[in-house]
Amino acid sequence: MTDILPASRADLPGDTTALARFLIGMTLVRDLPEGRVSGRIVETEAYGVSDPAGHAFRGMTPRTRALFLEPGHAYVYLAYGVSWMLNVSSEAAGVGAGVLIRALEPLEGVAIMRANRGVERLTDLARGPGRLAQALRIDRGLDGIDLCRDGLLWLAKSAGDPSEIGQSVRIGITKAAERPLRFYERGSRFVSGPRALNT
DNA sequence: AGTGCGATTGACT
DNA sequence: GTCAATCGCACTA
């Protein structure tokens, strides 16, 4: 039973940076046995072609296979042995690139998110890539799935008017750290990172 | 087969 | 503000 529909792949920009910007304001939906969890995407980072910070920079490996799928597939990996990260594949099939989803504004299923996270504060549920994955119970099992189909995890069209989008350097990387490839909903309380990067 | 290192988070001074 | 946890992976040999 859905009152919202999956995004169509044809609508997704193929260009990684354009996709990172495009995803701001879209809805990410996770259907769990207990019910639906969803959130508005408020922060992304682009990891495009020829980007030394990108996991596909040195070619395809077993882990990064999903980055080479056509746009709109999930690339999920474990960071620091602790936190799961969700990316949306970008660029044409065979080209390795993607967009990291860094933060959500909770919409549906807040009680489920609280249970998954073990915290109460609304702004702590999905602010940060590892936290949002925990809130939505995202792990390796979702690696490679098509986010443009109504399934376990999928993308839906914009959840509200596009607001002003800010741009900054990416968070937590050392390679190519100067590139301004992070996008966020300006002023949102649900965006991660230092205050200086949310202006 | 061994090793160094993160696209982070939460606890702590 | 600082810092350790934790482990899969990519790289070297």
Overall tally of domains:
1
CATH structural class: Alpha Beta
Q: Name the CATH architecture.
A: Roll
- Number-wise, the strands total 8
Please give the share of residues in helix. Answer: 10-25%
Radius of gyration: 15 Å
Quaternary structure of the protein: single chain
- Low confidence ranges: none
Approximate shape: globular
Question: What are the main properties of this structure?
Answer:
single chain; alpha+beta; 8-stranded antiparallel beta sheet; 27% strand; globular; DNA-binding
What can you tell me about this protein's structure?
Strand 3 and strand 4 (83-89) form a beta hairpin. The relative contact order is 0.23. The longest helix has 8 residues, at 16-23. With 199 residues, the chain is α+β, with helices and mostly antiparallel strands. Strands 1, 2, 3, 4, 5, 6, 7 and 8 form an eight-stranded antiparallel beta sheet that branches. The radius of gyration is 15 Å and the shape is globular. The model has no long low-confidence stretch (mean pLDDT 96). It contains three helices and eight strands. The protein has a single domain (9-190), classed as Methylpurine-DNA glycosylase (MPG) (3-methyladenine DNA Glycosylase, Chain A, Roll). The structure holds a DNA duplex (13 and 13 nucleotides).
